[in-house]
Amino acid sequence: METDISCPYCGENIDVVIEVLDESQEYIEDCQVCCRPITFNIDTAFDGSTSVSVYSENETY
Question: Pfam families from the xrefs (predicted)?
């Protein structure tokens, strides 16, 4: 799945490709613009819908 996200550090909109699995997942990927680590949380609901949340390294969620 391809989606646009806003980097929590530099604020730039970037396109990312996310592999959608049957379970929720978390991983870190560097921003394509500022190269800082973005934490991705991908949640898959029972109905198959997917939500993507991004956080900086120091944010709590």
Answer: Zn_ribbon_21
